[in-house]
Amino acid sequence: MSLENPGDLESPVLAIDPLLDDPKTRIIVCCGSGGVGKTTTAAALGVRAAERGRKAVVLTIDPARRLAQSMGLTELDNTPRPVTGVDESAGGTLHAMMLDMKRTFDEVVLQHSDPERARAILANPFYQSLSAGFAGTQEYMAMEKLGQLRALDAWDLIIVDTPPSRSALDFLDAPQRLGSFLDGKFIKLLMAPAKVGGRAGMKFLNVGMSMMTGALSKVMGAHLLRDVQTFIAAMDTMFGGFRKRADATYKLLQAPGTAFLVVAAPERDALREAAYFVERLAAEDMPLAGLVLNRVHGSGAPQLTAERALAAAQALEEPRENLGDGGIVDREAGKTDSIAEGAEGAEGTDPKTRADGTSDDATIPPEQRLAAGLLRLHAERMRVVARERRTRDRFVSVHPEVPMVDVAALPGDVHDLDGLRSIGERLAGDHPAAA
Question: Where are the extended beta strands (E) located within 107-156?
């Protein structure tokens, strides 16, 4: 595809403002690979939604913590905090929070067990390890927190920033993962003595499980095995609740009021991941709103191709005597001059150095050299534009039905609310595409 005729492959336009303004939109989930501006997109959507009248909260589980800096908050924690500086004249508000995985797990334990059992669970060494870093715990707790925020009904729009790369899909897999873990043979085996109870339970443990526990003690250590068994016994009554809430949140993600936004950059790997996300969301019946293509480069002079810009730069960089009043002239004698200069160079003189000691570059006016440099920069920009367009077109050719919005690259990093507003304008198409 040539740059003279861009737009050979076009996708439906993703309309952000109607999505934010629709009161039926209650949850927006931003997912995508790492380093594509997902956190910034989520924050910009929150600011724009609040300033258009929505009561929004942004939940991030991205450990980079850039959200706090861009929103002017000293820190984010497990409690939604108001963001100051947002224009609330339309009746909207904005809160932001970062998921604290362990604290959320602790809250679940305290909420769904009696005080004595809760103390036993919170003090259990195996629980402390599990709540701090067990695979899939972060994603499950993100779903727990999402369910909690939705149940509070204090906000009419929840925007979720998911972890980077394919781990974001663990957000969808968390309920099934947890169910598989809790229903696994190992867990059932460890739960068996507690289910039998009392002396019978001890007899069962001593007789029926003596060989198994002996082997496990050697592998895990006797103390760890006891901690696990104590944890399983204490958590037994909560397992069904975990599964039930996770399944409810999963259905919430499939509901019409939820919208998934896949965030990508115009790069091959990022768009390959985006295609994977799109296909996975479709397979799970998750409502995909569209794709946000971040950091797209453009030009204010797209009609000037890279080839023409380079040709013009080369012409401007020719010595002055090679230019006529009308510009470049045919230079038949140039070959002879070049041979003569080459002969001088063979004697140890720089070919570009004249007899009077001046160089060819000295005959080029400074403004001409500056113009040539700018033309070369433009040529490089047009190459980037062409490469990004080809990459974008490959995605569109495979997923032509996915609505898309191109967000022009900013000249610098986003570090305040004004920067987030600027991103919001680009998301909504209120800003020219060239950057």
Answer: none
Closest CA to 36 of 267, 313, 198, 222: 267
CB atoms within 10 A of CB 94: 30
Residue in this structure with the two tokens 């004004």, named with its chain if needed? 418
* CA 419 from centroid of its chain's CA atoms: 17
Q: How far apart are CA 249 and CA 150, in angstroms?
A: 9
Q: Could you give phi then psi for residue 417, rounded to 5 degrees?
A: -65, -35
Is 159:49 a contact under the CB 8 Å cutoff?
yes
Q: Are strands 323-324 and 327-328 parallel, antiparallel or unpaired?
A: antiparallel
Give which of 420, 419, 423, 405 is closest to 13, Cα–Cα: 405
- Strands 288-296 and 55-60 turn out to be unpaired
Among 143, 372, 378, which residue's Cα sits nearest to residue 251? Answer: 143
Nearest CA among 412, 430, 387 for reference residue 297: 387
pLDDT for residue 5 = 39
The helix/strand/coil state of 99 is coil
Write out residues in the chain with pLDDT < 70, as ranges: 1-8, 62-66, 132-137, 164-171, 174-226, 229, 233-240, 319-362, 430-435
Angle value at C-alpha 22, between 18 and 23, nearest 5 degrees? 165
DSSP 13: B
AA letter at 325: D
The answer to whether 87 touches 418, Cβ cutoff 8 Å, is: no
Q: Are 261 and 289 in contact (CB under 8 A)?
A: yes
